[in-house]
C-alpha cells in the first residue's frame, strides 16, 4: 500500500516537472532567437546611417579575394598569383591568406544564388559579420550552459550580443577575419568543455573540426592551442585527471594538428613553430599520467611502485629527448621559433625595439584604462564576481573559464586589438555573476514574501531530487513484494524516511539563514536592473555612433549641419578612370588594399606587411629629399604617388602623423635615415622650428604643396600650428589631382630629362667661365668615347 501511495503521489510531480521543463525549453529557445535578432540588428546602424559599403582597410582585400573566388572557382583561388600587389614581387594569394572568411562568404553567396536569391558578392560580404555575431551569441550560451546552467548561458549570450568590443569588429561592412573567427573560437571552447563533461569521442571529433575552421579563419588560433594545454596541465597538477580529460585533449592534438597542416598558410608551422610546442609537451605528459593510472589499476601497491619508477624514468627520458629536439629547432631560429606578433605578446617592448612595422599599427598599441570602460563597460566590474562564482563549486569547466579570463585580460592589456578576445570571456563570467546574483536575490524574496509558506517553497525546491528517490523506492518495492523479508524492508524504509525528514528540515533552515533581508533583496534587484539598462544604453550608443562609421566615408557635425567627406572614393575613382591599367601607384602601406580593390591599380606595398625591406624602401623615399625620392620611385617603375593629408579638415589619421613611423621603418633597413634629423630638441614639429631635413623631405612637400593658398596662412588644423615652409615648387613631381577636402592628393612623377649627347661637366676653372661659347664647345669631350 505504501508503494502504491508513493507512486500515485509522484505521478503529478513528474507531470509538473516535465511540463515545467518543456515550457522552460521553449522559452529558452525563443529568448535565444530574440538574442540572435538583437545581435544582428544592432550591427546594422552603419547601413542605416550611411550605406552598404565595406569598412576599413583589410576588408577590401578580403572582398577582392571573395570576388575572385566566386568568379573563377576554388581551384583558381588556390593557385592565384596576384601581380597587382607588392610590385615587382607579387603575392601568391592561396598560400598566404587565411581562407575561412572567404570560403564562408563564397559558400553563402553560392547557396543563395542556388535558391534563386540573386544577392551581390558585396552584399553578402557586408552582412556576414552580423550573421556570425548571432552565431557567436548562441555559442556563448552553449558554453556557459555547460559551466553554470541555462540561466547563466542566456545572460552571457545577451551580453555578448551587445558588447561594444565585439561590435567594433563585426558591424555590417566589417568584412574581416574576426567576423567568423570569434564564433569559431567560442564554439571550439564549447565543444572542448562538452567533451570534458561527457567524455564523448563524438564531441571530441567535432572539437577538432571546429578547431580546423578556426585555423582556416584567423591567426589567433594559437590562443586555442595554448590555452587548452594549459588547462589540461592545470587539471593534472591539481589531481583532476580523468579519462574524460584524455578524450577531450588527445584527439584535438592529433586530429586538429593534422587538419591544421592542410591549411596552406599554416602548413608545417603547425609542428615546427614554438607556438605549438606546448601542446605537444602536454600531450606527452598526459600519456605518461594515463599510463600511470592504468598500471595502478592492474597491479598491487608494491608492484605499482616499481612500475611507476620505470614509467616515470622512461617518461622523463622521452620528455628530455623531446625538449632537446625542440631546443635544437628553436635555437636555429633568430626569433627562437616565435613569430614577431607572438614575441610582442610575451614581451610588450619587443616590437618597439626590433620590429617597428608591428609597433606602428594603432591596434597593436596597449589600451588605456578608459578603453576598457568603452569596450566592455560594466562587465569590467562584474568579471571579479564571476570569477568568484566559478569557484563555488570549482569544476573542470569552471576552472577553464577562470583560466580563459585570466589569460585574455593579460593579452588585452598588451594589445588593444585583443580586447576582442577578452569580450567573450568577460561576457561569460559576467553572465555567471548576474545569474548567481539574481538567483540569490529572488530566492531570498521567495522565502520572505507574505502568504507564501516556506515549507511549500522547500518542498518545491526538493521535488526534483525527491522524485528520483521515490521512483527508485517504487521499483525496489515492486520487486521485493513477493520476497519473504517484506516486513524488514518496510521497516528499513520507514527508518530511512525518518532520517530524511530531519535532513530536509535542516536544509530548509540553512536556506532560510542564507536568505537576505527582503528590502536588501529588492534594492539589489533594482540596482542590477539599472546596471543592465545602463549597459544597454551604452552598447546602443557605441553601435550607433562610435563604431558604425566606415573609414572610407567620414562625417562631422557642426553648426552648419552634417558634413560628409567622401574623398577616398573620389580619389580612387579618379585613379581608376584617369590612369592606365598597368600604372603603378606608391603610397604608405595602409592604403594598399583599398587602392588595389577600388582603383584596380598595381601598388608597391599593402597591408599584408610581409616584406619589411619593401616597406622600408617606400618609407625611405617619403623621408628623402625630392630628387632622391624620385630616383627611388623611378627605380620601382612608379608613376603616381598618393598621400593622405588631413590638415585642412582636421583628419588626424593622415600621413604627416604617421611620418615618424616611416622614418623609423626606413631607418631600420637604410641607416642613413636617422630619426633625430627630423626632430627639433626631441619634438616632432612642422612649423618654422622644424628641422631642414623635415622641411625638405618628400612627405612634407607633397602634403603641404599649395596649402597656403587655402587660407593665406597655411594653418594646419590637426597639428594646430602654421606650417614652416609655405612657398615652394616641385621639380620632380607634378600635382595631378587633389580631392574636394584636400584629404587625398595624387602626384605624378615627371619623366626623366633626355640626355644630351656630348654634354660634359662644367669646368671649374675661372677661364672656362669667361671663354666664348664656340671656344668652350671645342673643348668638350664625348662621354661615350
TrEMBL record:
Subunit structure, as described in the record: Component of the oligosaccharyltransferase (OST) complex.
Catalytic activities: a di-trans,poly-cis-dolichyl diphosphooligosaccharide + L-asparaginyl-[protein] = N(4)-(oligosaccharide-(1->4)-N-acetyl-beta-D-glucosaminyl-(1->4)-N-acetyl-beta-D-glucosaminyl)-L-asparaginyl-[protein] + a di-trans,poly-cis-dolichyl diphosphate + H(+)
Enzyme superclass (EC): transferase
UniProt feature, compositional bias: Low complexity: 766-775
Chief localisation class: endoplasmic reticulum
Stretches that traverse the bilayer: 22-42, 92-112, 124-143, 149-167, 179-204, 210-234, 246-271, 277-295, 307-331, 372-392, 399-416, 513-537
Protein name per UniProt: dolichyl-diphosphooligosaccharide--protein glycotransferase
Entry keyword set: Endoplasmic reticulum, Glycoprotein, Glycosyltransferase, Magnesium, Manganese, Membrane, Metal-binding, Transferase, Transmembrane, Transmembrane helix
Protein source organism: Durio zibethinus (Durian)
Amino acid at each position: 500500500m505504501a508503494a502504491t501511495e508513493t507512486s500515485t503521489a509522484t505521478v503529478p510531480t513528474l507531470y509538473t516537472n516535465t511540463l515545467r521543463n518543456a515550457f522552460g525549453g521553449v522559452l529558452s529557445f525563443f529568448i535565444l532567437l530574440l538574442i540572435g535578432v538583437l545581435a544582428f540588428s544592432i550591427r546594422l546602424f552603419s547601413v542605416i546611417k550611411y550605406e552598404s559599403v565595406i569598412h576599413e582597410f583589410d576588408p577590401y582585400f578580403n572582398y577582392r579575394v571573395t570576388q575572385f573566388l566566386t568568379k573563377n572557382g576554388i581551384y583558381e583561388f588556390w593557385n592565384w598569383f596576384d601581380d597587382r600587389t607588392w610590385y615587382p614581387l607579387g603575392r601568391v594569394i592561396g598560400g598566404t591568406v587565411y581562407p575561412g572568411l572567404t570560403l564562408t562568404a563564397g559558400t553563402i553567396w553560392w547557396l543563395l544564388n542556388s535558391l534563386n536569391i540573386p544577392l551581390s558578392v558585396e552584399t553578402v560580404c557586408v552582412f556576414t559579420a552580423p550573421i556570425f555575431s548571432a552565431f557567436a551569441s548562441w555559442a556563448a550560451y552553449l558554453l556557459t550552459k555547460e559551466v553554470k546552467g541555462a540561466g547563466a548561458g542566456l545572460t552571457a549570450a545577451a551580453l555578448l550580443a551587445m558588447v561594444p568590443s565585439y561590435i567594433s569588429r563585426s558591424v555590417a561592412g566589417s568584412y574581416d577575419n574576426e567576423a567568423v573567427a570569434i564564433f569559431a573560437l567560442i564554439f571550439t571552447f564549447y565543444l572542448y568543455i562538452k567533451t570534458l563533461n561527457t567524455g564523448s569521442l563524438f564531441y571530441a571529433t567535432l572539437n577538432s573540426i571546429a578547431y580546423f575552421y578556426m585555423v582556416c579563419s584567423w591567426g589567433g588560433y594559437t590562443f586555442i592551442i595554448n590555452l587548452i594545454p594549459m588547462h589540461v596541465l592545470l587539471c593534472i597538477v591539481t589531481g583532476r585527471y580523468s579519462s574524460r580529460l584524455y578524450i577531450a585533449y588527445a584527439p584535438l592534438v592529433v586530429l586538429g594538428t593534422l587538419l591544421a597542416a592542410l591549411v596552406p598558410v599554416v602548413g608545417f608551422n603547425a609542428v615546427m613553430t614554438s607556438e605549438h610546442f606546448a601542446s605537444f609537451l602536454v600531450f606527452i605528459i598526459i600519456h605518461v599520467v594515463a599510463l600511470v593510472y592504468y598500471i595502478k589499476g592492474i597491479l598491487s601497491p608494491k608492484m605499482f611502485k616499481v612500475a611507476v619508477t620505470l614509467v616515470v624514468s622512461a617518461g622523463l627520458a622521452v620528455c628530455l629527448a623531446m625538449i632537446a629536439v625542440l631546443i635544437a629547432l628553436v635555437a636555429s631560429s633568430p626569433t627562437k621559433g616565435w613569430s614577431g606578433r607572438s614575441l610582442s605578446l610575451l614581451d610588450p617592448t619587443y616590437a618597439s625595439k626590433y620590429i617597428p612595422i608591428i609597433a606602428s599599427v594603432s591596434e597593436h598599441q596597449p589600451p588605456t584604462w578608459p578603453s576598457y570602460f568603452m569596450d566592455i563597460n560594466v562587465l569590467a566590474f562584474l568579471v571579479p564576481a564571476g570569477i568568484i562564482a566559478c569557484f563555488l563549486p570549482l569544476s573542470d569547466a569552471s576552472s577553464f573559464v577562470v583560466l580563459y579570463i585570466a589569460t585574455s585580460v593579460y593579452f588585452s592589456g598588451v594589445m588593444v586589438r585583443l580586447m576582442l578576445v577578452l569580450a567573450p570571456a568577460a561576457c561569460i563570467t559576467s553572465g555567471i555573476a548576474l545569474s548567481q546574483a539574481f538567483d540569490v536575490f529572488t530566492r531570498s524574496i521567495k522565502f520572505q514574501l507574505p502568504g507564501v509558506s516556506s515549507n511549500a517553497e522547500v518542498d518545491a525546491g526538493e521535488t526534483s531530487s525527491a522524485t528520483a528517490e521515490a521512483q527508485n523506492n517504487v521499483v525496489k518495492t515492486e520487486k521485493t513484494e513477493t520476497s519473504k523479508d517484506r516486513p524488514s524492508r518496510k521497516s528499513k524504509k520507514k527508518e530511512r524516511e525518518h532520517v530524511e525528514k530531519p535532513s530536509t528540515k535542516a536544509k530548509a533552515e540553512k536556506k532560510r539563514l542564507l536568505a537576505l533581508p527582503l528590502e536588501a533583496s529588492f534594492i539589489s534587484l533594482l540596482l542590477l536592473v539599472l546596471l543592465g539598462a545602463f549597459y544597454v544604453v551604452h552598447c546602443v550608443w557605441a553601435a550607433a555612433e562610435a563604431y558604425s562609421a566606415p573609414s572610407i566615408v567620414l562625417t562631422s557635425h557642426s553648426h552648419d549641419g552634417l558634413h560628409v567627406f567622401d574623398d577616398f572614393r573620389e580619389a580612387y575613382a579618379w585613379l581608376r578612370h584617369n590612369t592606365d591599367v598597368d600604372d603603378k601607384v606608391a603610397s604608405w602601406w595602409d592604403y594598399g588594399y583599398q587602392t588595389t580593390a577600388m582603383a584596380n591599380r598595381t601598388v608597391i606595398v599593402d597591408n599584408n606587411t610581409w616584406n619589411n625591406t619593401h616597406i622600408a624602401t617606400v618609407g625611405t623615399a617619403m623621408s628623402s629629399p625630392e630628387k632622391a625620392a624620385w630616383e627611388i620611385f623611378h627605380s620601382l617603375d612608379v608613376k603616381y604617388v598618393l598621400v593622405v593629408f588631413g590638415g585642412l579638415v582636421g583628419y588626424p589619421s593622415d600621413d604627416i602623423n604617421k611620418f615618424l613611423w616611416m622614418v623609423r621603418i626606413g631607418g631600420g633597413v637604410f641607416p642613413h635615415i636617422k630619426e633625430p634629423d627630423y626632430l627639433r630638441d626631441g619634438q616632432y614639429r612642422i612649423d618654422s622650428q622644424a628641422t631642414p631635413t623635415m622641411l625638405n623631405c618628400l612627405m612634407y612637400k607633397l602634403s603641404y604643396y599649395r596649402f597656403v593658398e587655402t587660407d593665406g596662412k597655411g594653418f594646419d588644423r590637426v597639428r594646430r600650428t602654421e606650417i614652416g615652409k609655405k612657398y615652394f615648387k616641385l621639380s620632380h613631381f607634378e600635382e595631378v589631382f587633389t580631392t574636394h577636402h584636400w584629404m587625398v592628393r595624387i602626384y605624378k612623377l615627371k619623366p626623366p630629362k633626355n640626355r644630351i649627347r656630348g654634354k660634359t661637366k662644367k669646368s671649374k676653372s675661372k677661364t672656362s667661365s669667361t671663354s666664348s661659347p664656340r671656344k668652350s664647345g671645342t673643348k668638350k669631350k664625348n662621354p661615350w668615347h
